[in-house]
């Protein structure tokens, strides 16, 4: 496959790796340059689009507050991601094992998938008090639950009957069948669900913070800054939220690669 790609592009594998890293950087720099041009030369108003330079100044000036808010949001998103993923894996395993559980869980998962976070966040914040982060963590857990459940359940059902029959013909126990057949088949689907859920957990935690609850977190400061017309500062918090989402995505992608290397057999070259 690599040889075919090399013949088609005329580039060496090392050059292609450099281009994969360099291309997004170049696009980002060009985008920032166009953004700065629109603000400084074209004259786009600050309340519509603050300049990257102004956002950078606010980011540096309020760095301690931004860092603290990022830690709060990241903690809420991480707790929600871990709890939601664990519950989703457990329920998916039960649903794959018993059809009755599958039938009962299907409408619940479908309902959770369409829960409006905008409406749920103020309710949970009011229920658990102004000083509790539980409402935000619960919303992040709900957002992470659905993709992990759907992908894990699909992965657990991908094992072919012929493979199960082969394991039984060797007198393998249920645990051995799960370890050597079911689990390796389901792991790629599970890790894909977690990777998708990582970004959803961050977004959901931000939305929950935006609509009330205890002060702290990126969502709260975005709301406060926008309400006081500090638009460049609000965009600085938005930039921190983007960085946090990318951090979660990259971390789960690296975790996926590590798990695939450790758990699944290496493919022959």
UniProtKB/TrEMBL annotation:
Major localization class: membrane
Entry's localization field: Cell membrane
Gene Ontology CC annotations of this record: plasma membrane
Keyword Membrane carried by entry: yes
TM stretches of this protein: 21-45, 65-96, 108-128, 134-153, 186-208, 234-255
Keyword Transmembrane helix: yes
Chain ranges of the ABC transmembrane type-1 domain: 66-259
Protein name as annotated: ABC transporter permease subunit
Source species of the chain: Microbacterium hominis
């Amino acid at each position: 496959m690599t040889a075919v790609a090399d013949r088609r592009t005329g580039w060496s594998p090392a050059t292609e790796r450099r281009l994969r890293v360099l291309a997004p950087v170049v696009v980002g720099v060009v985008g920032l340059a166009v953004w700065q041009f629109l603000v400084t030369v074209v004259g786009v108003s600050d309340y519509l689009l603050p300049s990257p330079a102004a956002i950078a100044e606010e980011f540096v000036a309020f760095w301690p507050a931004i860092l603290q808010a990022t830690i709060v949001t990241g903690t809420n998103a991480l707790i929600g991601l871990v709890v939601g993923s664990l519950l989703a894996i457990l329920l998916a395993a039960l649903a794959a094992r018993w059809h009755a559980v599958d039938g009962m869980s299907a409408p619940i998962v479908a309902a959770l998938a369409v829960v409006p976070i905008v409406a749920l966040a103020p309710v949970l914040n009011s229920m658990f008090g102004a000083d509790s982060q539980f409402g935000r963590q619960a919303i992040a857990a709900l957002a992470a639950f659905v993709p992990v459940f759907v992908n894990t359940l699909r992965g657990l059902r991908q094992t072919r009957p012929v493979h199960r029959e082969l394991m039984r013909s060797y007198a393998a126990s249920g645990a051995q069948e799960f370890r050597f057949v079911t689990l390796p088949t389901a792991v790629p689907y599970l890790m894909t669900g977690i990777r998708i859920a990582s970004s959803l957990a961050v977004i959901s935690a931000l939305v929950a913070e935006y609509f009330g609850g205890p002060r702290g977190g990126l969502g709260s400061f975005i709301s406060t800054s926008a309400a006081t017309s500090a638009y460049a500062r609000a965009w600085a918090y938005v930039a921190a939220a983007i960085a946090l989402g990318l951090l979660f995505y990259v971390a789960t992608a690296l975790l996926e690669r590590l798990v695939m290397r450790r758990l699944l057999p290496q493919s022959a070259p």
